[in-house]
Amino acid sequence: MTHIDSHSQITLQLNGVEQIVRANLNLAELLILCDLPTQSVAIVVNDSVVPRSRWMHILCQANDNITVFSAVAGG
Fold it and tell me: What is the pLDDT of residues 55-75, one digit of tens each?
């Protein structure tokens, strides 16, 4: 039986769906892992918009509520 270190995975909400991902995953990696677009999207973490320039620097945390929006141009 394989023991999984409880710190090696975290649970978070992504677009309203519970996801179990590895710890120390940044937002850019999360998009790729979940097969989400990395262009023309905005990411909101716990009600705060995260600028694209910070995606590589923000690590997903247990119980984060992450929403990925398609960015719509025009008006």
Answer: 999 999 999 999 999 877 665
Among 29, 52, 56, CA closest to 19: 29
Pairing of strands 65-70, 9-14: parallel
pTM: 0.84
Which is nearest to 63 in space by CA: 6, 10, 9, 12?
Answer: 12
Amino acid at residue number 10: I
